UniProtKB/TrEMBL annotation:
The lineage of its organism: Eukaryota, Viridiplantae, Streptophyta, Embryophyta, Tracheophyta. It comes from Papaver somniferum (Opium poppy). It comes from the Eukaryota. InterPro entries: P-loop_NTPase, Thymidine_kinase, Thymidine_kinase_CS. This is Thymidine kinase. The active site is at E94. Substrate binds at Y178. It holds the Pfam family TK. GO terms for biological process: DNA biosynthetic process; response to stress; thymidine metabolic process.
Amino acid sequence: MDGSKLSSGEVHVIIGPMFAGKTTALLRRMLSEKDIGRNVAVVKSSKDTRYGLDSIVTHDGKKLPCWAMPNLSSFKAKLGDDAYEKLDVIGIDEAQFFDDLYDFCSKAADHDGKTIIVAGLDGDYLRRRFGSVLDIVPLADTVTKLTARCELCGKRAFFTLRKTEDTQTELVAGSDVYKPVCRQHYVDSPVVIEATRIVLDSLKVQSDPHVEPVPLAC
């Protein structure tokens, strides 16, 4: 592509807890871009198999075809150079699962002139940073934080509460495992209290050479 004809790109980030409408906002934006004649493509992580791999699907059933990829660095090769060059807008859903998010967004917007619209979780169920989503905030033209409704009281929900005692960070699931909650109901949750204790105890063992880890049963 002739660099003299290349306009600068943009990066727009949509974050928030689960059930806040991030995918809906991304889908709406992508359809709007498509309606005005821009060439668009949507990428999501192949880790998210809840609604199939060929579409992004909102919790209320709206969907748009997409590319399911294990990483973003292989997207251009998968799509093909010619098709990639013709793209105007790239949407990225469930962005927290892409480790190469920063590098992809930086190159696509700064050097390839693409508009990138990113939707993903900013925090995990323990309110810690999740993946690389927060890393691209310094790259962003705009950042929108959405909220849900607390499932317990109806107030604005900023956090995602895990209903189970699983402690792995990446646990892809829906309303059977997660629910949006306000600050009060997050802090008061016995599941959160116990999960936090387990994680903190684990970190203490890892950082203190004098603490012997509990042996696992064979």
